[in-house]
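Hello forum,

I keep getting stuck at the same step: I have a sequence, I want structure tokens, and every attempt I make locally crashes halfway through. Rather than fight my setup again tonight, could one of you with a working pipeline run this one for me? It's a single chain of 180 residues.
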Amino acid sequence: MNGLAAVLVLLGVFWTQSSALDTFVLQEPNNGYVTGTMTIDNENKLAEVHVRSGLYSSDTIFDYSRGYIATRLFSRNACFIMKINKEDIPELEEIGRQAFERQAMRRVYSPNNVWVQFQSGNSMLGNARDWLIYGRPIEQLCSGLPLYQLEETRPQMNVNGCASAGIPSILGMKICERVN
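Reply #2:
Ran it on my machine without issues. Output:
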């Protein structure tokens, strides 16, 4: 009997450790094509999103422990960083809940959109001080790329110069160049 209890305790420990990461498949709502994946690391308060959609491919890290979002747009060969605004960006648990619901009900499509802008020609390369602020996951994503600070803005009328990123069908990010 004691052996069975020990096995159950060990299984519980392994289950807890393995359930710290949740991975979700992100699909287009209308056609079911897989456009990316999202992994949520509850222990480290991170969400990593990998979108593979041709010109609109991107990698995004939501680092809730540091309070930053970083998006690497492959089409622009640059990284865009913004502070998490709790009024517009859902909590990590909410993102996980919405991803689970989207997988269960594949036809649902009601993304929230966050509109942000950056100033062209106003980039920097990350240094040691920046990486201390942004953290290791964002450093790994953005090291060696120009970094642009993002600011929230209102929805744009002309979206031709905007790039899409974020979490498909959950939280869209529209990244636009500021026009002076």
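The mean pLDDT is 77. If your local run keeps crashing, start a new thread with the error log.
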